[in-house]
Amino acid sequence: MSHSVHTSIVVGQRPAAPSVDGRGRSTSATPAQAGERHLGFRPDIEGLRAIAVVLVVLNHVGLGLFAGGYVGVDVFFVISGFLITTLLLKEAGCTGTISLRRFYARRAIRLLPVSTVVLIATVLAAWFWLPATRFRSISLDALFSTFYGINWRLAYEGTDYLNATAAPSPLQHLWSLAVEEQFYLVWPLLLIIVWKGKKAAYTLGALVVISLLVSAQQTAAAAPWAYFGSHTRAWELGIGALVALATGVLRRTPKALAAVMTWGGLLAVVAAAVTFDKTTPFPGYAALLPVVGTAAVIAGGSVNQNRLIGTRPFQFVGRLSYGWYLWHWPVLMIWPSALGRDPGVKSNLAFAVASLGLAWITYHLVENPVRHRRRLRNRARRGLILGIALSASAAAVALVAGMIPPTLPIGPPAGDTRTELARAADPQARLTELITGSVGAARMPSNLTPALADAKVDKPAIYDDGCHATYQQVRSGDCVYGDPAGARTVYLVGDSHAAHWFPAVDDLARAHGWRLVALTKAACQMPRVLIYLTGFERPYRECTTWREQTLRRIEREKPDLVVLASNDLDSGLLDDDGRRLPRADQPWVRAWQQTWERLEGIPTVLLQDTPWPGRDAPECAAVNARRLARCDRTVGKAIAERKRRDLVADAARADGLRVIDPTPWFCAGGRCPIIVGNTLVYKDNSHLTDAYVRAIAPLLGRELFSGAAGGG
Q1: Domain ranges of the chain
Q2: pTM of this prediction?
Q3: Burial code of 630-653, b = ≥16 C-beta within 10 A, e = fewer?
Q4: CATH 3.40.50.1110 is the classification of domain 417-705
Q5: Mind giving me the DSSP string for 311-350?
Q6: 71 within 8 A of 57, measured Cβ to Cβ
Q7: How open is the CA angle 132-62-169, to the nearest 5 degrees?
Q8: Beta strands 514-521 and 468-469, pairing class
Q9: How sure is the predictor about 576, in pLDDT bands with cuts at 50, 70 and 90?
Q10: What's the distance, Cα to Cα, between the start and end of the chain in Å?
Q11: Do residues 213 and 220 lie in contact, with contact meaning Cβ atoms separated by under 8 Å?
Q12: Euclidean distance between CA atoms 447 and 288, whole angstroms
């Protein structure tokens, strides 16, 4: 929104005939005013907006019938592509030019006032009511949203395994506005370049095809990038633009056929909303159904508008659709924390309706007064200045709020857990005392390590070093830690639940003079079976490839010790063709056996999974800062898949593996706290903090190296 240079191109002769506005009034547009004149009101498009926002809202409140209601965003994309292109074409035909300065000024006046109000209100509400642990991330979301880049931030975080369980941001929904703004930045420039040669339709058509193909490829390979990426969504706006370019031809459509197009298009959109769900590979080719359906409604409406969506209820909701879309998501994300209640469908529906009330207020007090203000509409420079001022204000609020996070009540300092265990004659006995003393605590210690706000970034060095394979990677690097010159070698192998042990194993390897090779991969468990990759919604074949390469490497290099560790939960076991296997424990046990059978003759330790806190531990501590005991969990609930875990352990011992059960390092007296001494145990809902892993290293060392060949 910061463009201030007036760029235009002559694309045709300026018409002398007066134009007609959307209410049938004759207007004689001057060159400066022509681009601002009304485009001609389309009640059917207003009704489409209503359908789009209702589908999105019903999906977000959790109404199962509309599990595919997210397609409402795709409807918005097509509408935006159509309207923006129509505006540009009419300005070009009326004035002979396309003024980028006027175009961006119009966008600023139309979009920024309400979005700025919502963004600032959301940041302030989050400061008061959401867990303090989330505020740093939310302030960053606000900053990225201000400059229309939050879609890329969400795409990146969606491929970060350690962030996979994070609560949704109350600003997450602004990703769609970012995609549209990126389109608005590129499309007018492209139209200027290709218009003179009458190649706009061909150029846009080629880009639509390319974007659709990229979308399909990315949907199969990297779903978050496909969902949030502007490169994979551009074709949807492009379809709307193509409809605008084809308006002259479409007006010759027979009325009967146009009626079929509008009703068929509406049916396609609704069908997508009720038949799609979170398992549907999306957007990809699946998005063709709502996108083509929307395009058909708009195209048919150029001749024969659908009367149903032109009725008053649809028009009312359509007018408020922009504000409702902006308000509903923050309200749904914040109200449960503000009122201390768990969300439900009925409650969500009530608050979604309340957010429609907020949309009505901002429509009448902010949106309409600003966009109809003549001083802004007739002077592009003023509109741009307003846009810059609003963006700067939102950015300032985000930055200042990020520097002043909410404070939490704390208790007196506690003894340092790492120091206590390092100097204890019996570390396990001392740790049991520390755990017992931490169970039932009311407040967190003032010297908590790491601080709640820092827990998310408290991760093993192998992540920053690029030595923990990402989802797409199928090879591990030659990352050697511990004592690189050591005579003996230990391999740490598994998924992120192996990786979170790295700080302790690294410290121990250096102390014992062992080389450490870390071979870990995001969400890739070691049992030799194809698993389903949640989030990407597809079989995790990269894991199968990586696992086989890792096992071959171990067979070839024959290290002195292999430590296997993996998450006990699975998101679905699949056969070689990608079909789900019936849920049973024995296939999992057999898959583990197939793994360690490959390691026959190599000393191998099975380090069992750690207890789980059940929810994001730092967030639980922030929410329950005065009643920390609410975050304690019983051992029975903290151990995931207990029966399966025991079966695997029995099979491992029977086949000669050493099995380490870490439960006594986390639980005592049947309870498992999330803070032990002064140390936060978990960084999220399952992964350990570096600080706690290093604190309990003496206990791991006794189990790990005392029985290793040659000791150390």
Answers
A1: 44-140+178-403, 417-705
A2: 0.84
A3: ebbbebeebbbbeebbebbbebbe
A4: yes
A5: SHHHHHHHHTHHHHHHHHHHHHHHHHHHHT----HHHHHH
A6: no
A7: 25
A8: parallel
A9: confident
A10: 64
A11: no
A12: 55
